[in-house]
Specification:
Blueprint: H1 9-21, E1 33-34, E2 43-48, E3 51-56, E4 67-69, E5 77-82, E6 85-91, E7 114-116, E8 120-124, H2 146-149, H3 159-173, E9 177-181, H4 192-205, E10 210-213, H5 221-229, E11 233-235, H6 243-249, H7 258-272, E12 277-283, H8 289-302, E13 304-310, H9 327-343, H10 355-358
Parallel strand pairs: 8-9, 9-10, 10-11, 11-12, 12-13
Antiparallel strand pairs: 1-2, 2-3, 4-5, 5-6, 7-8
Helix pairs in contact: 1-9, 3-4, 4-5, 8-9
């Protein structure tokens, strides 16, 4: 029995359902996983019909999911089951080879950067944020400090460390792009200086497409500096579509308003090009489908790719018990958004580097066809 490919109607539905409902797995299931940290987490990487996706497995919702994966064999092969009915074969990819290496000063490579999806390397350069320490200002979904507290990462990744790991990941595991994100260290450049320094070192060591991610810096000249440093694309993440939801869920970050983001997007597209500026939107935080689609229409008109993903409640955060969006809600957003992107000829496959290109945290790319 074979699961449907992602490009088919049934394949899109399956992945959308999995990413909303999660997947039950055994405690000792091997493979690539992520807990805590910046951005979407509490996932495990699985391959379905040749497509690599990230699926929630460590959330409370996943423990109640109708989906179950049988214990994988020594090659990572497993059977996906829904409500007791086998659906077909899936695969848990093995950890990449570069995870087994350490730097000269003894830091494991996997504490510096992680493999996301099939072939995207990702790192949080500065593993803290000026807002995280105070829940009155922090993003309520964020777990940037958890992985640091659990000794799964280091507080600051130097440019030399990032270059060393990136080179190894390309040479040993065929990594094709890299994401450099950061906690916000200040309200002036908002991390752009750190990202530029890191990008410059990586590009000096290896020819690897890079996406850098930060809040909009006050000085939009940073966009050209980031491009000159070697960044191929830029992510500036709104997280939510409406200012009201942003103020409720991310009170500190919401002080940088949607309008200021839109101004920054317009400036950045002039530097990076149409489709090479992306923004993350977490569906399920309180915005309606209409709110998300209205914002997406504005973003696409500016030349910004709106990467809409289902919100995943991360354990240990204030939103750990917040329900993820239903599969029907996600389809009500992703299907029309896919048509909008198709009509605008703005495709994830044209993004040079970053979350939209990787696409593992959302089934959006399947709706572009």
């Amino acid at each position: 029995m074979t699961v449907p490919t992602l490009g088919t109607l049934s394949g899109r539905k399956l992945v959308t359902d999995l990413q909303s409902l999660g997947l039950q797995i055994g405690e000792d299931t091997a493979g690539i996983a992520r807990k805590g940290g910046a951005g979407p987490s509490d996932h495990k990487t699985i391959t379905i019909a040749g497509q690599t996706v990230m699926v929630p497995v460590y959330t409370s919702g996943a423990r109640r999911s109708p989906f179950l994966a049988s214990p994988p064999d020594q090659h990572g092969a497993s059977t996906l089951v829904r409500d007791g009915q086998p659906l077909g074969a899936i695969h848990f990819p093995a950890a990449p080879r570069f995870y087994g290496l350490t730097t000269a000063d003894g830091v494991p490579y996997w504490k510096i950067a992680l493999l996301h999806g099939r072939d995207t390397l990702a790192t949080t350069v500065h593993q803290t944020c000026i807002r995280y320490v105070d829940r009155r200002t922090s993003c309520q979904f964020c777990a940037i400090g958890q992985s640091l507290e659990a000794d799964r990462t280091i507080a600051y990744k130097t440019p030399a460390q990032l270059a060393e790991v990136a080179k190894a990941a390309v040479e040993l595991d065929g990594v094709r792009d890299m994401v450099l994100t950061t906690g916000t260290p200040n309200v002036i450049d908002r991390g752009a200086a750190l990202l530029a320094e890191s990008a410059r070192a990586i590009r000096a060591a290896i020819d690897l497409p890079l996406q850098v991610q930060c809040e909009p810096p006050r000085d939009h000249d940073w966009f050209q500096r980031l491009r000159d440093a070697g960044a191929d694309s830029l992510g500036m993440h709104l997280e939510a579509a409406t200012q009201a939801v942003r103020e409720k869920i991310m009170p500190g970050k919401a002080t940088v308003s949607v309008d200021r983001y839109m101004d920054a997007f317009a400036s950045a597209v002039l530097i990076f090009g149409r489709g090479q500026v992306n923004t993350y939107i977490l569906a399920g935080l309180g915005d309606s489908a209409e709110d998300i689609l209205a914002l997406a229409e504005r973003l696409i008109a500016l030349g910004v790719y709106p990467f809409v993903v289902p919100f995943v409640p991360i354990s240990g955060t204030p939103l750990e018990n917040h329900a993820p969006p239903s599969p029907d809600f996600m389809k009500s957003v992703l299907a029309p958004l896919g048509r909008m992107l198709r009509d605008a000829n703005m495709k994830s496959t044209d993004i040079r580097a970053g979350c939209g290109r990787c696409g593992a945290c959302s089934s959006l790319s399947a709706y572009e066809h």
